[in-house]
Amino acid sequence: MTFPDQPKPVHFPRAFWTANVVELFERAAYYGMFIALTLYLTNVVGFSDINAAWIGGVYAGGLYLLPPFSGALADTMGFRRSLLLAFFLLTAGYFTLGAFPSRALVLPALLVTMVGGSFIKPIITGTVAKTSDEANRARAYSIFYAIVNIGAFTGRGLAYPLRLHMGLEAINLYAAALTLLALGAVAFFYRQVDSAVHGTTFRDVWAAFRGVVTNVRLLMLILIVTGFWVIQQQMYATMPKYVLRTVGPTASPEWIANVNPFIVVTMVMFVTHVMKNASALASMIVGMVLMPVSALCMSLGGLIEMRSGEDVVIAGILSAHPITVMLVAGITLQGLAECFISPRYLEFFSKLAPRGQEGLYLGFAHLHTFFAAIIGFAVSGYLLNAYCPDPRTLSAEQLVHAYDKAHYIWYYFTGIGVVATIALIVFGRLTSK
Predict the structure, then answer these.
(1) What is the DSSP letter of 321?
(2) Which residue range forms the structural domain that includes residue 306?
(3) Best exposed site among 227, 241, 268, 426 by fewest CB in 10 Å?
(4) How far apart are CA 21 and CA 153, in angstroms?
């Protein structure tokens, strides 16, 4: 009796699994630290909302600007040495933030973690590429994508009890412990793979950067999509302080933010299937429409609280603060919007890049996140200062009505989303030929 051929199991080398394990540690460390960053800068170090926002924005922006340059350096140094350097810098930076929370050290520590973190993505994705072939590359990147989301989900989830019971400094020490484990894993288990993945030099990377920022169509697309990510950045820039100040210190911005990766992981394949026959631009426009709706949805929590009080019943079973409920609803819509935009943005971007140079230019396709981080955090700082100020700066009399207009913050981001959506529609029509 003969049996039909069974698919052969895929066996990835040790470098692949080591890279994914350390990616899990790094993502858990980063997202645990990042969701609490502006809280740490204000509540522990003593920066104002405005200054904390600028620092957080530059830090986050740098993590998206530097990777193409770090990737070129990693090609020269070798992946193993680059990973050892990256995790050493991350461990030193996170430990300094947790153990020595002072104004004199916080900026150098953040700079160290920013440089260290910028190596991770190009090296790990390069390792995945070099340890897989055409037959199993899709599966390899699926595993990598799942690991990233598991790390993000776990990191934010564990940050909540750490903040509540041990303080904000403990989150940074927890992040340092995770990156130290990753450093040990690289030292003992990661074997060098061919690092010539990108095949680019600093000159190539700089030429691509100049090419992107001087290409009017690409730069316009980046700036328009920046509007989407400005709203998305509010999960870290505005939401933590907003919910803790309006709901109370036991609120959980960490778990509220975890709604986003949950929606993306569970819905992205379905959305991609539904939109498979639609153009990349059409899919992106759907996502852009959802973003201002999500911001408007978040604003409703304050209005519902004024009418129904601090407790609403959900499906007759659960009760929660209306601000928490509407933040979850808004972030759900943001996750859904991301499913429409993210998979198709690179496709649309590559069509506008110079023919034959698509791969090089795609290294800077995520410049929108660089701009969005700086703009989104900066705007957040001024809006928090105006509508949802630090309670430690207010008297008892001022606190009574200090947050009556806190929900106004989301109206500004609704406006940004509407402008970005209209701009994308107009841009699509102008570039359709």
Answers:
(1) -
(2) 210-433
(3) 426
(4) 15
| Contact partners, residue 189, CB within 8 Å, separation at least 6 | 14, 18
Q: Are residues 391 and 257 in the same domain?
A: yes
Residue 9: per-residue pLDDT: 56
pTM attached to this predicted model:
0.90
Residues 90 and 56 in one domain: yes
Q: Is the per-residue pLDDT at 41 higher than 70? A: yes
Q: What is the Cα Rg of the chain in Å?
A: 22
Calculate the CA dihedral of residues 383, 387, 392, 396 and round it to 10 degrees: 170
Q: How confident is the model at residue 356 (pLDDT cuts 50, 70, 90)?
A: low
**Number of helices and strands (H, E) in the chain?**
20, 2
Residues 186 and 215 in one domain: no
pLDDT digits (tens, 9 = 90+) for 161-182: 999 999 999 999 999 999 999 9
For residue 200 the two structure tokens come to: 């680019």
* Residue carrying the six token digits 């394990």: 21
User: The tokens of 179 are what?
Assistant: 């990156």
For residues 44 and 182, what is the distance between their CA atoms, to the nearest angstrom? Answer: 27
314 bridge partner residues: 318
Whole-number Cα distances in Å, 222 to 81, 131, 359, 363, 366: 33, 32, 16, 13, 8
Q: How many other CB atoms are there within 10 angstroms of residue 426's CB atom?
A: 12
**Distance spanning both ends of the chain, measured CA to CA:** 60
**Whole-number Cα distances in Å, 114 to 16, 109, 110:** 24, 9, 6
* Of the residues 177, 199, 221, the one at which a domain ends: 199
**What type of residue is 227?**
G
CA–CA gap between residue 389 and residue 53 (Å, rounded): 13
